[in-house]
Amino acid sequence: MKFYNFDWNNAAALGTCSHCFHDAATDEGARTITTSGFYFDATVPRRIRYQTPFKAIFKDLDGTLTGLGANSWATYYYRSHLWDGECTHEADVYDGVICGSNVELRTIKFSTYTPSGLFDGMGLKVLQYDDDIINAFNETELETYIDDRDNYGSFNWKFKPSKNWAQPFVTGHKYKISWGVTGIDFEAMNFEVAQPYHPDDKSVYLIHNFTDVREGIEVHDRSTNI
What CA–CA distance (Å, rounded) separates 1 from 35? Predict the structure, then answer.
């Protein structure tokens, strides 16, 4: 497929949309689209433009979309997607990040949570948390890193189809996940790797806050010895 003359306004050769006229109308998104056999003329300054819900994944089978070779990737930019040597932010041409074939972009869906009312409408916060990142900080620096909201990817809760967050993750890394501003404890929640998925994909490690709600009870013997 060949593209020419997409140099007007903010036009792009490829676009994504799920009822994108209104955020409340769209579903979870985060679907994977495969591409191959593209040619982009110099009159195509923008190859991709993402729209609501800003979560589509492109798998480039032959490298003609991303220029990074076969089995490379593209998706919208969130801070948690930006990994040195694997994914780069290319805002002008790709409206997001492009990643090489040394990783995968896979969708993980979080749903069926309790208590339901507490999580409705909350954003999912995702922080890069690999060992080499964390071990480079002292205790104070780590606290600052965790508290800085600019370090997080922030993903919107979706009402359709089933009250969930379905988000792309770059494989082979650890992420600290939390909900809301300071983190909300859940009693139960389903974590599901969406299709397509392959057994030889790199792992994704998720770390989340845990609150121990057990109550400590001390018993003192006040009896009088006789």
Answer: 10
DSSP letter (8 states) at residue 79: G
Query: Could you tell me the residue ranges of all domains in the chain?
Result: 2-99, 105-208
Q: Are 125 and 78 in contact (CB under 8 A)?
A: no
Phi, psi (degrees; rounded to nearest 5) at 119: -95, -15
Dist CA 96 CA 17 (whole Å): 15
Give me the sign of the Cα torsion angle 62, 29, 87, 96.
Answer: positive
C-alpha closest to that of 165 among 205, 194, 201, 203: 194
* Contact call for residues 49 and 12 (beta carbons, < 8 A): yes
The pLDDT profile of the chain, 226 residues, written as one tens digit per residue, is 999 999 998 899 999 987 777 777 788 889 999 999 999 999 999 999 999 999 999 999 999 999 999 999 999 999 999 999 999 999 999 999 999 999 999 999 999 999 888 899 899 999 999 999 999 999 999 999 999 999 999 998 988 888 999 999 999 999 999 997 667 888 899 999 988 888 899 999 999 876 555 566 666 666 555 4
Q: Residues 108, 169: contact at Cβ < 8 Å?
A: yes
35 phi/psi in degrees, rounded to 5: -135, 155
Which regions of 79-147 does DSSP assign to beta strands (E)? 87-90, 96-99, 105-114, 124-128
How far lies 29's CA from each of 16, 24, 145, 171, 204, in Å?
A: 10, 12, 29, 19, 20
